[in-house]
Amino acid sequence: MLTENLGEISRSHVFFTLGKGGVGKSTIAIALALELSRKGRTLLASFDPAKHLLKYLGVPEPGRIHSVGVFDAYQLDLEQATRRLAEELEGNLEYLAPSLKVLNAEKVLSVARYTPGLEEDSIIRELSRIYGLTGYDYIVVDMPPTGLSLRVLVLPELYVSWLNKLIDLRLRILSLKYTVEKIRERSRDIRDPVLDKLVELRDTYLGLSTSLKNPDKTSYIIVANPEPLPFYEVKEIMKTLREIHGVNPRLLVMNKVPGDKLTSGSEVFDIISEWCEIPVHHACIQLLNKPPSSLHEVEALTRTIYDCCERLAKDRC
Ligand SMILES: Nc1ncnc2c1ncn2[C@@H]1O[C@H](COP(=O)(O)OP(=O)(O)OP(=O)(O)O)[C@@H](O)[C@H]1O
Ligand SMILES: [Mg+2]
Q: Locate the ArsA/GET3 Anion-transporting ATPase-like domain: which residues (predicted)?
C-alpha cells in the first residue's frame, strides 16, 4: 500500500505526483486516490496536458469534476484554460492601460496570447482553486512532466517578489500623481485599479506559495523508473523543492522495477541502490508484463508494492 509509506497525514491534504514523462505519475496518482478514498473524501485532479486521465478513468469531459465511483476526478483542459487566460489578459490590458491606444501600441493586446508562461499560469490558477476547495479530505494532483511542473511550483514564489517590487513602484507613481494633483488643487481619487490588481495577484500567489511549502498541507511524491534519466530528474526535483520551498518529498516511488534485473552489478541495481540512499521513505512497484489499463488493474498494482531497499540491503549482506 502506498499510504503505509506516507506516515501521519492531516486532513485537507494535497499530494503532488512528480517525475519524468512516462514513469507512471498518473498511474501512481490513481493508485493513491484509490487508497485515500477509503480514508476520506478524495479528489484526483489531473494537470497532465495529454489528458490521460480521461482515458484511464473514462472521465467524460475535461474542465468539470466527475464522480468515478469511489473518488471524484477532474481533468484540466489546459488548452482551453490557456486560451481563456489570454483573453482575460487582453481584456485587463485594455481596461488597465487605455493609454496603449493613444500611444498606437494596440498591437500589445493582440500578441498577449503569445506571452510565455501562460500555460504555467493556467495551472497555477487551477492550483489556487484546488487549495480553496472545501469538502475534500484528500486531493491528489497528477502533474505534467518535470520541466513544466517545476516552473509551476517555483513561479508563485518568484511572482510574489516581482509583484512586491511592482507594488512599490506603483505606490511611488501614485504618490507623485497625488502630489501633482494636490498642487493643481484638483480632486484626488486615491483608488487605483492597477494597484488593486497587483495586490490581488500578490495575495493569491503568496497564499499558494505558503501552502506549497507547508508539509501539513502539501506532500510531494516523486516517481521514477530504474533508468539514469528518470533518476536524474528525481535529484533535480528534490533540489528545487529544497531550494524554493525548503521541503523534502514525502515519498519516492520506484516504478517498473524488473524483478529479474535486481542482481548486484546490474545498472538497475546500481540506480536503485543510490536511490535508496536518499533519506526519505521509499516504495517500489514491479514492472508488469501488461500496462495496467483499468481502475481494477491499478488497484492490483498497489498490492505489488514492496520495499526493494530492504531487499537490496539483505542482498548486500
Ligand atoms: N508498474 C508498471 N508496469 C507496467 N506498466 C506500467 C506500470 N506503471 C505504469 N505503467 C504504464 O506505463 C505507461 C505510462 O504510465 P503513466 O501514464 O502513469 O505515466 P506518466 O508519468 O503519467 O506519463 P505522462 O508523463 O505522459 O503523463 C502507461 O501505459 C501505464 O499503464
Ligand atoms: Mg500522466
A: 14-260
Q: Where are the domains of the chain?
A: 9-83+115-316
CATH class name, domain 9-83+115-316 = alpha beta
Atom of ligand 1 nearest to the CA of 285: 1
Reported as a single tens digit per residue, the pLDDT across 71-116 is 999 998 888 888 888 888 777 777 766 666 666 666 666 666 667 7
What does the pLDDT look like over 176-197, one tens digit per residue? 888 888 787 766 667 888 899 8
21 lines ligand 1 (CB under 6 A): yes
The rounded Å distance from CA 99 to ligand 2 centre is 44
> Ligand 1: does its nearest atom lie under 6 Å from the Cβ of 226?
no
Q: Where are the beta strands (DSSP E) in 83-136?
A: none
Residue 291, amino acid: P
